[in-house]
Amino acid sequence: NAGVTQTPKFQVLKTGQSMTLQCAQDMNHEYMSWYRQDPGMGLRLIHYSVGAGITDQGEVPNGYNVSRSTTEDFPLRLLSAAPSQTSVYFCASTFDRRAGKLFFGSGTQLSVL
Amino acid sequence: AQSVTQPDIHITVSEGASLELRCNYSYGATPYLFWYVQSPGQGLQLLLKYFSGDTLVQGIKGFEAEFKRSQSSFNLRKPSVHWSDAAEYFCAVDTGNQFYFGTGTSLTVIP
């Protein structure tokens, strides 16, 4: 098993550009989520999904879009990047969220200039 | 609103000393509570969790945490810290709708 795979690991964008952060898991987890991590802010939930075809907003959804067409993939789209979106992004998944064992990807460091 | 507070941004301890990291939550009922550790450049690893029952829970790497309902706290402890414990520690709660993380406590271990 590869676990949770995030790509790319690093990305630099210019303001206004769009891009998609990829997240894939091979553990058949129903629950997948995206977090951003900023210094002094901890991890904040952007969007999450409890299964294919089902997505919902977290704490900080503005400026981000998600879809869940398959169980395995949960891409995060930045439609028009802004400097405020400079952050480290983590994808996480679990079979049972209340079991607490979230499996995290290795993160994507995004800089928006 | 639900929230998780970790009042200590940064803690420094000597190797071999005891450790306590504080976590307070704000929620109407008893949520599911967790502690995670993040090493530099890595994702988060679950240390331990509390759902119900015994309020003192044991985790990996020699960590334990105690749930105190009266204080809305879930503090993480370790009797003797090792240099490899230097990392960022996050308390988290699951309210049934969402999973919230605290802002984290950075631990430095002095040899």
Question: What secondary-structure arrangement, pairings included, does this model have?
Answer:
The complex is a heterodimer of chains A (113) and B (111).
Chain A: E1 4-7, E2 10-13, E3 19-25, E4 31-38, E5 42-51, E6 54-57, E7 64-66, E8 76-78, E9 87-94, E10 103-104, E11 108-112
Parallel strand pairs in A: 2-11
Antiparallel strand pairs in A: 1-3, 3-8, 4-5, 4-9, 5-6, 7-8, 9-10, 9-11
Chain B: E1 3-5, E2 10-14, E3 19-21, E4 24-26, E5 32-38, E6 44-50, E7 56-58, E8 64-68, E9 73-78, E10 87-94, E11 99-101, E12 105-110
Parallel strand pairs in B: 2-12
Antiparallel strand pairs in B: 1-4, 3-9, 5-6, 5-10, 7-8, 8-9, 10-11, 10-12
Sum up the structure in keywords.
heterodimer, A: 113 residues, mainly beta, 7-stranded mixed sheet, 4-stranded antiparallel sheet, B: 111 residues, 6-stranded mixed sheet, 53% strand, globular
Structure description:
The complex is a heterodimer of chains A (113) and B (111). Chain A has strands at residues 4-7, 10-13, 19-25, 31-38, 42-51, 54-57, 64-66, 76-78, 87-94, 103-104, 108-112. Chain A is mainly beta. In chain A, the strands form two sheets. In chain A, strands 2, 4, 5, 6, 9, 10 and 11 form a seven-stranded mixed β-sheet that branches. In chain B, strand 8 and strand 9 form a beta hairpin. The radius of gyration of chain B is 13 Å and the shape is globular. Chain B starts with a strand and ends with a strand. The relative contact order of chain B is 0.34. Classes of the chains: A mainly beta (113), B mainly beta (111). The A-B interface holds A 4, 33, 35, 40-45, 48, 58-59, 90, 92, 97-102, 104-107 and B 4, 6, 9, 32, 34, 36, 41-46, 49, 51, 90, 92, 94, 96, 98-104.
